């Protein structure tokens, strides 16, 4: 390769590189004057044009890279004597990928040998490509000079590019950053939109039957949870007789069409509150609301009639028969047993030849033995008054005194020795509805205990009582509490009901009314297990609570976790703003107590102060100085 030979057409010939260099520099000084006044895009456009003239190059362009060096975009491009529009090009595998990796590409001749595959370099003989770097040294773009003739004095050309690069970098950086930000925003928005769409789609799919678009079994279970008190509801399972052979004779596709038509008919029945769910392949579940067994019969009859009328499938009438099992939910202890029962009834109807309705009889209910065992023991326990509150003191760190107790239910076994904890029996009490009677009894006993202590040691103790969802929704709760309070002549303001967020999946106005009813008795309200639900903050503003109890899980790691501390501090500020007091439960160590006191939590409760104790013992202890409670000898009543 003969570099000494200058073959450029329109330029004076130079004997030495030095001479060429002086020529370039002198000419460049003139151009720089004009370039000085230009900024941004204008600067780039003028620069590529000037350089292309100066070097007598066939093409000079400046381009920027995208974030992952997949695409480049020309910023200014002077090609064959003309300014060209911007365009995007693919980077990987080209000379530009090397520039993206912060390398300069400088080839004076026979460029083709180096980048055989690169179509866009075809026809050129030499290249100078220099990366444009950002302040961290990453390549954000490039300036490229291409000539069809060999470039004999390539170092001289490169030297001029050196002079330009600082300014190019300064001009490109803000443009690049703006673009980068834009790209990142777009990417983020795209991801967000996708993930929201995906989430919606997934949850829709999870609760919807694919063929009929009806809500499915999962949706049925959710619906029942939302209903809560199921006393007036009934369920019916409708199954197509011989669906397999129906499918076989009309074809699978028309089988799906038939299922959709059935779903639609049932869904359009003019029965208030009736809901239709797709059950298994050929079965539909209806959930209805009726005031009497007669009304259930009427609604079921309407469903069956709708089901039975011929269907128009592919222009011809299709007649099917169905079997039905139905039952009022009030007959069953659990949803599970109700569903098992209608299933059994449906299959019995099918066995008997189909096209009939079987109503559930007691004998069909499959027995959940453990449940019934505990349940009947509990009924016996209630008769024998084996359920009793234990009391756990709530401590005021400011006055260093106990201000009152939380009543926690215990089941003392028939031997008088074993103590069963709430997690062993409350779930069964809730499933069976026994919690309503049990809870009423607890409220009665606790209020009576409070009254006795008031008489013995003077009044002023507060009493917190837990309410479960079923109790809360029980119509007789408010009148019952009213009666109990008046029996014992207790200041209702001393009674606080603790409820958890799980109640709030019900209709908000209804909950608000219920809460207001309780408050209108003069009693107070505490939001228990705060922080474990989904939207606790929203509830605080909506509902009239007097107190927030931060859940134990935040107290457990209050020493180690800045996150938990930050949450407690935030809730502290919020509760003060809303005029509520703040309680920390599950305080187990002195360190936790000190930390929570320093944050400004109003009251503390936990094993560190005292375990829950039976009424007689708490009474004895309460009369003494609170400090004796720290003595484990007097404090070890309850071991789990
Ligand atoms: P809860 O209302 O969150 O009650 C606090 C639970 O934490 C109690 O458990 C208490 O004994 C326990 N606890 C208190 N301090 C500490 C501590 O420092 N460390 C630890 N590890 N635990 C502590 P318990 O008595 O087993 O009650 C469990 C749940 O049963 C209660 O949770 C409440 O939801 C329910 N419950 C208890 N009594 C009744 C009642 O009379 N009616 C209703 N509906 N539910 C009740
Ligand atoms: Ca509680
Ligand atoms: Ca709690």
Give a short overview.
This protein has 640 residues and is of the alpha/beta class.
List keywords for this structure.
9-stranded mixed beta sheet; Alpha-Beta Plaits; Beta-Lactamase; flat; 7-stranded antiparallel beta sheet; 21 helices; alpha/beta; 640 residues; TIM Barrel; binds calcium ion; binds ligand C2E
Can you walk through the features of this model?
The structure is a single chain. With 640 residues, the chain is of the alpha/beta class. The protein folds into 3 domains: 3-180, 2-Layer Sandwich (Beta-Lactamase); 211-361, Reverse transcriptase/Diguanylate cyclase domain (Alpha-Beta Plaits, 2-Layer Sandwich); 388-635, Alpha-Beta Barrel (TIM Barrel), CATH 3.20.20. The chain contains 21 helices and 23 strands. The strands form 4 sheets. Strands 15, 16, 17, 18, 19, 20, 21, 22 and 23 form a 9-stranded mixed β-sheet that branches. Strands 1, 2, 3, 4, 5, 6 and 7 form a 7-stranded antiparallel β-sheet that branches. It has a 5-stranded mixed β-sheet with strand order 9-10-8-13-14, with helices on both faces. The longest helix is centred in the N-terminal third of the chain and has 54 residues, at 154-207. Mean pLDDT is 83; it is low at 1-8, 361-369 and 625-637. The structure holds ligand C2E and calcium ion (2 copies).
Main β-sheet description: 9 strands, mixed
Q: Which kinds of small molecule does this entry bind, naming each only once? A: ligand C2E, calcium ion
The first-level CATH class of the largest domain is given as: Alpha Beta
**Structural class assignment:** alpha/beta
Tally of structural domains: 3
CATH architectural arrangement of the largest domain = Alpha-Beta Barrel
**What is the approximate shape?**
flat
Give the termini distance in whole angstroms. 92 Å
Beta fraction:
15-25%
Q: What is the mean pLDDT?
A: 83
According to DSSP, the number of beta strands is: 23
Helix content: 40-55%
CATH topology of the largest domain: TIM Barrel
From the alpha carbons, calculate the radius of gyration and give it in angstroms. Answer: 41 Å
Outline the low-pLDDT stretches. Answer: 1-8, 361-369, 625-637
User: What is the CATH superfamily label of the largest domain?
Assistant: EAL domain
Q: What is the helix tally?
A: 21
């Amino acid at each position: 390769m003969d570099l000494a030979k200058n073959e450029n057409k329109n330029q004076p010939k130079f004997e030495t590189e030095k001479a060429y260099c002086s020529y370039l520099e002198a000419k460049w000084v003139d151009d720089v004057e004009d370039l000085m006044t230009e900024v941004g895009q204008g600067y780039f456009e003028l620069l590529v044009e000037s350089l292309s003239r100066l070097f007598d190059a066939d093409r000079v362009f400046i381009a920027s890279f995208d974030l992952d060096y997949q695409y480049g975009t020309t910023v200014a491009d002077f090609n064959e004597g003309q300014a060209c529009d911007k365009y995007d090009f693919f980077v990987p595998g080209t000379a530009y990928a090397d520039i993206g990796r912060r390398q300069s590409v400088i080839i004076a001749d026979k460029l083709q040998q180096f980048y055989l595959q690169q179509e866009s370099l075809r026809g050129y003989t030499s290249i100078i490509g220099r990366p444009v770097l950002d302040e961290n040294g990453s390549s954000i773009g490039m300036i490229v000079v291409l000539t069809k003739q060999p470039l004999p004095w390539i170092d001289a050309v490169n030297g001029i590019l050196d002079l330009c690069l600082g300014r190019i970098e300064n001009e490109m950086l803000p443009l690049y950053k703006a673009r980068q930000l834009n790209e990142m925003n777009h990417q983020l928005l795209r991801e967000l939109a996708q993930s929201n769409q995906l989430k919606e789609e997934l949850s829709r799919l999870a609760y919807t039957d694919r063929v009929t678009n009806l809500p499915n079994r999962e949706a049925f279970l959710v619906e029942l949870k939302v209903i809560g008190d199921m006393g007036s509801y009934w369920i019916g399972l409708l199954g197509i007789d011989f669906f397999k052979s129906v499918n076989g004779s009309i074809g699978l596709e028309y089988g799906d069409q038939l299922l959709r038509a059935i779903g639609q008919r049932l869904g359009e029945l003019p029965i208030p509150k009736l809901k239709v769910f797709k059950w298994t392949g050929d079965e539909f579940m209806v959930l209805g609301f009726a005031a009497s067994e007669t009304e259930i019969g009427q609604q079921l009859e309407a469903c069956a009639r709708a089901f039975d009328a011929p269907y128009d499938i592919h222009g011809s009438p299709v007649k099917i028969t169905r079997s039905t099992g139905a039952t009022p939910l009030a007959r069953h202890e659990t949803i599970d047993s109700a569903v098992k029962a209608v299933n059994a009834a449906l299959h019995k109807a099918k066995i008997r030849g189909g096209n009939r309705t079987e109503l559930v009889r007691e004998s069909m209910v499959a027995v959940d033995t453990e449940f019934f065992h505990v349940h009947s023991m509990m009924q016996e326990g209630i008769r024998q008054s084996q359920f009793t509150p234990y009391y756990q003191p709530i401590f005021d760190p400011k006055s260093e005194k106990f201000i009152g107790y939380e009543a926690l239910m215990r089941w003392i076994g028939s031997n008088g020795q074993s103590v069963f904890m709430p997690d062993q029996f409350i779930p069964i009490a809730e499933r069976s509805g026994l919690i309503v009677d049990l809870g009423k009894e607890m409220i009665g006993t606790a209020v009576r205990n409070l009254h006795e202590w008031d008489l013995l040691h003077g009044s002023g103790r507060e009493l917190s009582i837990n309410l479960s969802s079923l109790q809360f929704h029980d119509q007789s709760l408010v009148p019952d509490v009213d009666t109990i309070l008046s029996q014992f002549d207790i200041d209702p303001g001393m009674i606080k009901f603790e409820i958890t967020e799980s109640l709030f999946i019900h209709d908000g106005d209804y909950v608000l009314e219920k809460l207001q009813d309780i408050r209108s008795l003069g009693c107070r309200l505490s939001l228990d297990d705060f922080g474990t639900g989904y939207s606790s903050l929203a509830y605080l503003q909506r509902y009239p609570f007097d107190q927030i109890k931060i859940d134990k899980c935040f107290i457990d790691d209050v020493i180690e976790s800045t996150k938990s501390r930050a949450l407690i501090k935030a809730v502290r500020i919020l509760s003060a703003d809303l005029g509520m007091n703040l309680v920390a439960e599950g305080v187990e160590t002195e360190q936790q107590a000190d930390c929570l006191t320093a944050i400004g939590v109003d009251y503390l409760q936990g094993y560190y102060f005292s375990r829950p104790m039976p009424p007689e013992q708490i009474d004895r202890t309460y009369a003494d100085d609170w400090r004796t409670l720290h003595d484990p000898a007097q404090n070890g009543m309850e071991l789990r």
